[in-house]
Amino acid sequence: MKTQAIYLMLVGSVLLGGCAQIRQMDDPTIKGPFHTAVNVHVTPNGLPATFRRVAVLPLIHGRGNRGAERGVPLVRQVFTQELSRARVFDVVTITPEQLYTMAGVRAVYADQKLPVGLIDKIKEVTGCQGVLFAELTTYRAYPPVAVGWKLHLFDLETEELLWATDEVYDAGQAPVANALRRHLRDSLAPNLVAPPKSIVLDSPRELARFSLHDLIGILIEKNAKVGFSLAEDTDSQRGSGTTGTESEQPEPALPETPETPETNENLTPASPEPGAL
Where are the domains of the chain? Predict the structure, then answer.
């Protein structure tokens, strides 16, 4: 009788294990398909060996995009946190007020001519080797949620474009939804086969976090330096990895009268068009 009970328990375990494997085979967060960012440029030589600090200009919304305009204050903190958490470089955040002090403007697009002296002022005030232009091109807060980013990273010394991306993540598309749910399963709930849809697909903040993690991951993957020489922690990165904490920001000396911006500086390559990179 005891032997029969043990036999039945073993058979039951095998059957349950088989059912679990079948469920996993049918789970799109395991079998896919998954979203792959394709409109990303990374310089073939990787980041320069001396590249340690990056000045991040204020996150701005796409021109004429009211949804993105409403989304900027909602994802700004997530944007700063993910850049800091990746530790590819030290993040020095420039606020709109600090940018106005330096150049007389509160926002700058990567594809416009820059105010005279802005690049020199950024180097002088922040001591950074690079500057990152950040634009929220898409933001949809209702299901299916969506976010889009247009990012440009320049070397302040050579004015070379080191990293650029123009990608939209739409949770209404199955590959994006699968990749997002897989990311949350692996990072937040590793013991769950698939997190609840109400948590995964209805949160624009989580989609923003995942999309940045995905895009920065491409930079790390294609940049050999990052694999063995992570940027060291600095005061500008104290908020790294802590939910709800932004990186500390530089405090540039305020000139008595902000200069009026002009438009003849030449750090203005066009933004990458979808499919062009």
Answer: 50-170+216-237
Would you state the pLDDT for residue 4?
65
What pLDDT, in 10s, does the model give residues 66-123?
999 999 999 999 999 999 999 999 999 999 999 999 999 999 999 999 999 999 999 9
What would the DSSP string read from start to end of 195-262? --HHHHTT-HHHHHHHHHHHHHHHHHHH-HHHHH-PPPP-GGGTTTT-TT-PPP---PPPPSSPPPP-
Pairwise CA distance, residues 21 & 9, whole Å:
18
Q: How far apart are the first and last CA of the chain?
A: 69
Q: Which fold has domain 50-170+216-237?
A: Rossmann fold (3.40.50)
Distances from the Cα of 252 to the Cαs of 167, 188, 257, in angstroms? Answer: 33, 38, 14
Helices (H) and strands (E) in the chain, counts: 9, 7
**Distance of alpha carbon 8 from its chain centroid, rounded?**
52
Rounded to whole angstroms, the Cα distance separating 103 from 114 reads 9
Tokens of 143: 């299901």
pTM listed for this prediction = 0.71
Amino acid 90 reads D
- Taking alpha carbons only, the member of 71, 135, 137 closest to residue 109 is 135
Mean predicted confidence (pLDDT) in 243-272: 41
The distance from CA 86 to its chain's CA centroid, rounded to whole angstroms, is 9
* CA pair distance 254, 208, nearest whole angstrom: 33
For 23-74, give the DSSP string: HHHH-HHHH-------SEEE-TT-S-TT--EEEEPPPEEPTT-HHHHHHHHH
Partnered with residue 135 across adjacent β-strands are 60, 150
What's residue 270's pLDDT? 43
Q: How far apart are CA 273 and CA 155, in angstroms?
A: 21
